[in-house]
Amino acid sequence: MKASTFDLLYHIKFPFHDIITYIMNSFLKKAAFSGLLMVLFVAGLRAASVQDTLPPADPFVNTSIISEHGEDPGFAKENDLFIEKDNLVRTTLEGDFDPEKVYAVFEGKGNLRDNGDGTYGISDLEEEGFVFFKLFEKKESGEDRFLGSKLMVVRHLPSAIAAEKKGAEPSSPMSGLDSKGGADSKIDEDGILKGKEKESLDISKGRVFYIGIENKIRFSAREVPEDECYFRFTGSGTIEKVEGSNGDAIVHVDKPGKVEIELIRNFDGKELLLVRRDYESKELPVPEVSFAGQTDKLTKEDFEDGKGIRFIFRYITDDVPTEILSYTVTMIPKEGEQQRWTLNTADLPKDVQKTLQKEAKPGTIIFVDDVKMTCGTNKQAKKIKGLILNVVESEK
Questions:
Q1: Which residues on adjacent β-strands are paired with residue 135?
Q2: What's the confidence (pLDDT) of residue 191?
């Protein structure tokens, strides 16, 4: 009988099985490697397509958009947004733009809050993924001007992921940790009662307090009587609840630096920490000036209300007490003699108002200079930049 090829291979003990195994393993490895390359290729295309949707940057404005994480560990990056946090995004703009007309757009599932000082809060994020944070300048006509954007990454905090794997309730950095004092509560090393239930609490205020004024904040805690809450203030300054206001408090700060506010509930003789927030205290910025309600151009009709000089503190929503010490107004008409007045009142004296209404014709230039004033509780005189205004025809 003639032996088959297989029998010959078998009887000479050729490693046929090993060859087949080697070929199969090589094939599987190549397939797996090709699959990995395909995944990376698709991911690269997706990332590229996301980046391609970014509008071109404005060449006249330098834009910085950074997500700040305070005392969070080093795993947090400047473009990270966390689902469990009230995220703070700080923007810095340099160049030719009107800061009063700048606004932000958040293209994701969550709430965007403008703090009024160039920072924005982003909270109540729902799902992981990529989102855009964009800045625009509002235009009266035509499309709004695009100033810049950043591609942000929404993800979970590692601590929350670990807690979910264990089946536990993740702690909430947005509320600082928080419990109503149930059976699972415990006293931490600082003597503060803490537990696993989350408290709904908000301190709504930009992250800056200014020296010399009353900085107003508002607080609330769900199902917690106000008379059981009190503050602990760390830093140079004070905080006082406004009695009968149902959640208002006044903060005074004395010098630049960092301050911390804790809202605490007295629960059965124990301290229950409801929320902790960090703030920065700063000197009041130098104000800008308006005259007759205008900062650039004005008409004869602008003098009808008798408004003189006013001070503008951008991004400050609290009242800033000011005192006018003196300023000068110089009118240089297109034809005729110039006139000059030294004033110390916010509104124009009647004789000055009538003269301006009568003689400030289109083409007249008005200088407001030598402006001296005080602001806040600081009574040291400040000399600030004045104005040059052009009188133009009324649009009526």
A1: 104, 148
A2: 39
Q: What is the pLDDT of residues 232-267, one digit of tens each?
A: 999 999 999 888 777 788 999 999 999 998 888 887
pTM for the full model?
0.50
Burial of 235 (0-12, 13-18, 19+ CB in 10 A): buried
Dihedral, CA of residue 136, residue 140, residue 143 and residue 147, to nearest 10: -20
Residues 240-274 as b/e (b if ≥16 CB within 10 A, e otherwise) read ebeeeeebebbbbbeeeeebebbbbbebeeebbbb
- Does residue 298 contact residue 389 with C-beta atoms inside 8 Å? yes
pLDDT by residue (tens digit) across 288-321? 999 999 998 999 899 998 999 999 887 787 889 9
Written as one letter, the residue type at 343 is: L
**DSSP, res 213:** S
Distance of CA 87 to the CA centre of its chain: 9
Cα 367 to Cα 160: distance, rounded to the nearest angstrom: 60
Q: Which of 221, 209, 222 is nearest to 278 (CA)?
A: 209
Angle at 23 between CA 21 and CA 24, to 5 degrees: 65
For 130-165, b/e burial (b = at least 16 CB within 10 A) is ebbbbbbbeeeeeeebbbbbbebebbbbeebeebee
DSSP string, 246-264: SSEEEEEE-SSEEEEEEEE
Distant-in-sequence, close-in-space partners of 42: CB < 8 Å, separation ≥ 6: none
